[in-house]
Amino acid sequence: MAELGLDWERVRVIFLTHAHGDHSGGARYLRAATGAKVYAGQGPTEEQPLGWGFREEHPPSFRSKRSARVQSYCPPSPTFAQRGPVRHVTIQLSDPASPEARQLIAQLDEYLSGLYPVESNHLLSVEALQQPDVTFLLAQVEGQAAGCGAFVNRDGEYAEVKRMFVVPEFRGLKVGRRILDELEALARNAGLALARLEAGVAQPEALRLYEKAGYWRCGRFGDYPDDPLSVFMEKRLK
């Protein structure tokens, strides 16, 4: 590096693994490869004012490696505060006939109609969601309608989860999981010991959400037809 005319007090050696950037792994690699005193830090600190990266205390005898590169400056990783403010999420009981709820339900209908034929979509209408055996939740992020979900009390035997939906721009905030958790809590309080749902094979993200929440695949239930596009799942609540 000396022949390149680089100032070792400013130079960053950033280790790039094949799978991911591992700063401590990078430091170990460079120590083994060059015998140099290289350390990783979280910065910015007094010793490492530029933040994350590696700094060589003394110029090493460095051989070019495909897994490493040299930069004169590497900006520090953003802190948690720099990544954006925490979004305020609220979930509450709501009327499915409200304008916000109707808009969410219409978006969900349009989304599902693009995935499955009509006979494979088992949708509850707004009127059906207003029945006394249905609990409907609306999620908001900073006051904006972000998602919804419901469950139907099936004669005290189980809660059937329906109308789960999160607006695309609010995905990644765990809104869907929070809606599901609240539905389960309300079903549990209603004395229901089992939750069931029907989803579709073309919704891998939804299926992962349910699996992570503790649902497992089960046989067909209720009045659902035998449909290869359907996935049936259930979870013990008590």
Can you put this structure into words, describing what you see?
22% of the residues are buried. This protein has 2 domains: 2-78, no CATH class; 89-236, 3-Layer(aba) Sandwich (Aminopeptidase). The protein has 238 residues and is α+β, with helices and mostly antiparallel strands. Residues 1-27 and 36-83 have low confidence and may be disordered. The chain is 23% helix and 27% strand.
Short description:
The protein has 238 residues and is an alpha+beta fold.
Name some characteristics of this structure.
11 strands, 5 helices, two-stranded antiparallel ribbon, Aminopeptidase
Q: Tell me what the CATH architecture of the largest domain is.
A: 3-Layer(aba) Sandwich
Number of strands: 11
Radius of gyration from the alpha-carbon trace, in angstroms: 26 Å
Which residue ranges are poorly predicted, with pLDDT under 50 across at least 5 consecutive positions? 1-27, 36-83
What is the CATH C level class of the largest domain, in words?
Alpha Beta
Strand order of the largest sheet: 5-6-7-8-9-11-10
Structural class: alpha+beta
